[in-house]
Amino acid sequence: AGRLTFTLTRIDGGPSAWSSSDVVAARDALAAAGARADELAQRFSRPKKGAAEALAASSRALNQNNWGGALLALDRADGLGAPADVALYLRAIASWWADRPEGETRAVIKRALDVVKAPEKRAMLDGLSLFLSARYGEAVAHFRGALVDKPGDRDLMYGLFEAQWHDGDTDAAVATYKDLVERFPDFSMAAYHVCMHALVTNDVDEQTW
User: Fold this and answer.
1) How far apart are CA 128 and CA 4, in angstroms?
2) Which of 115, 156, 157, 185 has the smallest number of CB atoms closer than 10 Å to its CB?
3) CA Rg value for the chain
4) Among the listed residues 160, 155, 168, 162, the one whose alpha carbon sits nearest the alpha carbon of residue 143
5) Is 16 helix (H, G, I), strand (E, B) or coil?
6) pLDDT tens, 127-155?
7) 88: closest CA among 71, 66, 69?
8) pTM higher than 0.85 for the full model?
9) How far apart are CA 159 and CA 163, in angstroms?
10) DSSP class of residue 20?
């Protein structure tokens, strides 16, 4: 490493001031050190092996209506350094679905919104906030608008279904869910709502999707 020397001088009788023997060299050395630090930070902050698998397991668990399994998989993903935007997004949905304390779920949503960039995912998170405030009519309008920008998005369709269901428009909710599972056959989150509707209405066709 090069040696940098500094001298203390007094200018025009004023206060003491430091002047570098080589300001350019100092600048370059500091820049190189910063670049090296950034490189090391990126290297050691990369997700460990298994993080992607844990996130995938969480997503599968949510699809299968298993919020408990989803939260366990997310804890594992966090321990492996999974990307925060994906992990927090999934945790917000799982936390709401698991009926965790409102303050806890709102805190997760806030943290997710700090890092999630995709507009459709941010729309889903904003919709969850409306659910927590029991503003279901507004949530219906919110998800309809989001689906105009991102038609056929699975999570937004699920959000619309939940909004319609909790707003009391169960027939519209079931129609949305039917469209959802036709597009995504492996999705069964909140399917028991539809089962309840089928039993109440004695809709045989609805029971055989």
Assistant:
1) 56
2) 185
3) 26
4) 160
5) strand
6) 999 999 999 999 999 999 999 999 999 99
7) 71
8) no
9) 6
10) E
